[in-house]
Amino acid sequence: MPKTYVLDTNVLLHDPYALFAFEDNQVVIPFAVVEEIDNQKKRQDEIGRNARVVSRELDGLRAVNRLSEGVDLPGGGRLAIELNHSHSLNFPQGLDRDKYDNRILAVAYNLSQAGDKNVVLVTKDLNLRIKADVLGLRAEDFYNDKVDYNSLYTGVSEIYISAQEMDRFYQDGKLKDGSISAPPNQFFLLRCNESPSQSALARLHQGTLVGLAHAESSNWGVRALNKEQKFAIELLLNDQIKIVTLVGRAGTGKTLLALAVGMEKVVEQNTYGRLLVTRPVIPMGDDLGYLPGTKEEKLRPWMQPIYDNLELLLRNCPEPFEVLQDFIRKGILELEPLTYIRGRSIPRQFIICDEAQNLSPHMIKTLITRVGEDTKIVLTGDPEQIDNPYLDASSNGLTYLVERLKGEDIAGHVTLVKGERSRVAELGGRLL
User: By CB atoms within 10 Å of each CB, which of 15, 114, 115, 132 scores lowest?
Assistant: First the structure.
């Protein structure tokens, strides 16, 4: 039986094309949502952009018929902007009737009371879902681009093979095993059936398990300290793998490994013309507000974690900071906020996007589509530490990208699990 989905503003600000994601069901947009969209349209960020996209889509549908009367959607179903059913006379005492959230809740509640038993309020606001439940109204999150984070692809698995197969792998550096069904570039810990303590590390390439080519390599003085880091370096140094995603808790070495290999590829091997490092400008806690100075000076607080890692890589230089500034002046290294990435085409560069868990799936798409010929892009992040108020571990762009690209032969992923920053950092990441 068709349902009536009442959309909250945050759903449309998260995905402006959510209007068309409900198949042959009825989509209702409370008039309060249109007001909230209008309040957000001048923002110079992804939320403002999404607000403007929603307005354009609604304006396009308006040409078909009056939105208050309902419009047939291209993929089936029908959309209407609800002017009625907004009274809140039956609400419990204490609810502010002027709040946008409560006005949206009133529309969904009154539609259900008017005889429509299949009304569903769709919102990413936890508290609004709680209030809907108290009123006996069905409420859901927007699941269209959600990923089950608890079962997220890790890029690593373990299999047991015979002693003869293990000997053949050691001798030939590869092993053909037609029984393995796994995504391209997945890594394996091989264990011997007869002697489980005997093991080897391998990567799946075109149906064949191949040994690691760069497991013991040193890149700007950085070596892998555990098997997951070896897997990460294998992906980072392989120029045939154009998209690398590294997920892990704080201190597992995601950013340091990516920067070390990026410097190796750009400065030492000259494989790429520039190392471009970017990250979303989203604060943890209160914002710093407007900062004085040039673009580089404004960016310094946001890019400080990158500077810290780069100065660590240059620790053996007499003046690490001066060497770093010289790389920037010569164009070898560029630190850029994602704010300025739209519209660019970036060929022959090594791109690192740090803290990618704070990006929406659409922002990830925008970044990936900037990649030009002979460019490699690395995205790192911890989905358990998200500062974007509209995202969580299951709906952020990084986990979305991991799941969508795991079957592609030019993409690779590793989840790092062991903290190597310090014993204190490892303890904090594991217990807190």
Answer: 115
